[in-house]
Amino acid sequence: MATASEGIGDLGWRRALPEGVRPYTEAAPLGAFFLGVSSGFPYAMIGATLTTRLAQDGITKSTVTTFALAFLVYNLKFLWAWIVDGVRLPVLGRLGQRVSWLIFSGLLVMAAVANLAFQDPSANIFQTAVAAILVGVAGATYDIVIDGYRIESLEPRQLGVGSGMSQYGWRIGSVAAGALALVLAARVGWPIAYFTCAAFALPAMLTGLLLGEPKRHREPIERKGLGQALSTVIGPFVEFFQRQGAWLVLLFILLHKIGDTLGQLVLRLLLDDMGYTNDEIAIYDVGAGFWAYLIGIFIGGVLYTKMGMKRSVLLSLILMGVSNASFALLAATGKSNLGLAAVISFENIASGIGGVVVIAYFSALCNLRFTASQYALISAAASVVGRVLTGTTAGAMVEAIGWVNFYLITTVVALPGIVLFWLMMRSGLVDSSIGSAGVEGEGDARARHADDELPERPRQTGA
Question: Which CATH superfamily is domain 242-440 in?
Fold first, then answer.
């Protein structure tokens, strides 16, 4: 009997699509989109949406900013990711390890958002803060499961397209949930707005139920007693660091986006100093940047498919580095709406490309027996160090050396990551460090062969 994913993948209408578009219509990348929608909305609920709610309730700015600490749980998710990989849920576990955790963590998110909905910040700010942290914990746990499910559902050839579709979903989910909350809050109040937005957890849960357990999921090796417990907790990390070049890979993960993070952290300060109005920022930074990023995501998926993982990652690193230099040019030439639109568009296209291909590479680093744990570790390493370093140095650097020199330095800071990845390519360490998620198996080969044999659309000739 054909599975739901096989049925979707073999639909006849796909034969009529251009070859470059077909990968986006396959079951696993489509599933990645809906997984992304559910992944993005909890972040919005404790981000700008909660900030707006607190401000409207008359909470002081100093108190509002402390709520940003709720995001730290996303950076600590690797500490409990092993539970998602190694603990089988009672009753729900019959659905499979990944699907059961999708359902369980999705319900946790809905409960946490509903709990936040009925808090009254003006009456008990501490209780509201605890509720926000609980949303963060539930959302981070949902992310762990979603990342594991996404990676194990995608074949190696689909990692680029699937990462792009996931980012499309994340952006749409976070923006849609945030906008819906604001619209409903103005009409029926914040409690109902938050309670309604809890429904954004459903797309990932329904995706798991429809597509079933990922075909590439591998159960951890069974061990009894203390050995099993230790294997569950430390096994993912031991396996990763036993690979050839693992420490260099980790160094690349830590370095690859420091320059980009430094530049983006103070971008709004640059625009303010240059005299851009709020309307101009909304049009050229927020508006143009949003659409440019979506375009970059699509380009990233195409480049990953056409160029392969290594070359597309290297190209994306170069583009992201050059985009920092473009801000130095903008700062040197002075205020220009056309210049701002060009720089913002280039930066967001580069970031969109990099987001797709680099995330695909990070996904390929995972071992299918420890997917959730290892990806949680990788994503934490990629974000925690950058946030800590940039948050403590960017402002002081700008005051000391000025905008032009600052953005030139961020370009230079991007070079070590580029050079390190190039050296890893030349030495073969990129290939040797890839986990089983990035290696095509027998089932993947059969699926790819079947897809290649789709009959070509008959050519039409004019009269």
Answer: MFS general substrate transporter like domains (1.20.1250.20)
Kindly give, in sequence order, each residue whose CB lies less than 8 Å from that of residue 463, ignoring residues fewer than 6 positions away.
Answer: none
For the domain covering 19-219, report its CATH number.
1.20.1250.20
Instruction: Output the CA–CA distances (angstroms, integers) from residue 172 to 44, 110, 202, 300, 417, in the order listed.
Output: 11, 18, 15, 18, 30
Q: Which residues contact 333 (CB under 8 A, 6 or more apart)?
A: 339
Q: What is the pLDDT of residues 114-169, one digit of tens each?
A: 999 888 888 888 888 889 889 999 999 999 999 999 999 998 888 888 888 998 89
Is the distance from CB of 410 to CB of 386 less than 8 angstroms? Answer: no
* Residues 164 and 101 sit within 8 Å (Cβ to Cβ): no
**Domain ranges across the chain:** 19-219, 242-440
Measuring CA to CA, how many Å separate 305 from each of 26, 48, 302, 317?
Answer: 14, 35, 5, 17
Asked if the domains 19-219 and 242-440 are classified in one and the same CATH topology, the answer is: yes
Contact call for residues 277 and 331 (beta carbons, < 8 A): no
**What's the pTM?**
0.77
What three-state secondary structure class fits 86? Answer: helix
Nearest 10 degrees: CA dihedral of 41, 46, 47, 49? 80
